[in-house]
Amino acid sequence: KNQVEQSPQSLIILEGKNCTLQCNYTVSPFSNLRWYKQDTGRGPVSLTIMTFSENTKSNGRYTATLDADTKQSSLHITASQLSDSASYICVVGAYSGAGSYQLTFGKGTKLSVIP
Amino acid sequence: ETGVTQTPRHLVMGMTNKKSLKCEQHLGHNAMYWYKQSAKKPLELMFVYNFKEQTENNSVPSRFSPECPNSSHLFLHLHTLQPEDSALYLCASSPDRGRSNQPQHFGDGTRLSIL
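Structure tokens for the assembled complex are given below, as produced in the milestone run.
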């Protein structure tokens, strides 16, 4: 069964510090991996999308890495800001045996940045 | 502004009521999606429309009835809902269901509470 596991479930860090969120998946065959940011009361917003051949992608202070061999991804946030407080969702895309494209969502990591 | 607008933002209804959720996208996309987001659970895909045609129904109970009159508008008609249907309902769009490396753009959701 395709699964996406994220850790930690929640995280509290001080403003200005760095942090790394983890995503492990068992989705196969792998097509791409996405990270979304979801602010409280808002819909998810795409941060990065990585395909099999990409092992790192940045979006400002956000850097995502992908190890397709170990089926792991991480999202690194540099010099955190209060506005980084949100849930971060890892999503893995795959084509099923019937040829349809499916996304498997993680439960998210809730990040709180405090002054 | 994500380009995907959902109304209403909040809805409280009794189990015998009939209501509809509306989604409109201004991105020129051809695929639209309904998701259910419950606390501490991954997003659950409910329905997918591609070029106005329903392409996926993930075993959603018939008390949820989608409608897609054109590529810019998507509705979710609700009737005789159950308390466990209380959740955040998210609409999303993407250029084409078949283009797997394009991100989905989400609206801010309708928070639904069933009394």
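DSSP finds no helices and eleven strands in chain A. The mean pLDDT of chain A is 94. Further analysis is deferred to the final report.
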